[in-house]
Amino acid sequence: MALIITDECINCDVCEPECPNDAISQGDTIYYINPSKCTECVGHYETPQCVEVCPVDCIPLDPVHTESREQLQAKYEKLMAAKNK
């Protein structure tokens, strides 16, 4: 499943550069994770890098976008194929 940034976000800017899929961007008031690009770092790392660096623990799983590890892997492969074109 994709991740989501909650309103507890303090806009510290540390998560955005850590995302290998460029899924994180600045929203109107807090950072936003694009669920179509978020693979929870599957294919890149063992753990989601944004969660690792977040100082306020405001990046939980997004219950609206549930995906299995296999689906996340397939999304990763699709994103990498599009990036390499």
UniProtKB/TrEMBL annotation:
This protein's UniProt keywords: 4Fe-4S, Iron, Iron-sulfur, Metal-binding
SUPFAM superfamilies in the cross-refs: 4Fe-4S ferredoxins
Start and end residues of each 4Fe-4S ferredoxin-type domain: 1-29, 31-64
Pfam families: Fer4_7 (PF12838)
Presence of the UniProt keyword 4Fe-4S in the record: yes
Keyword Kinase set for record: no
Transmembrane segment boundaries: none
Name of the protein in its database record: 4Fe-4S cluster-containing protein YfhL
Organism for this UniProt entry: Candidatus Nitrotoga arctica
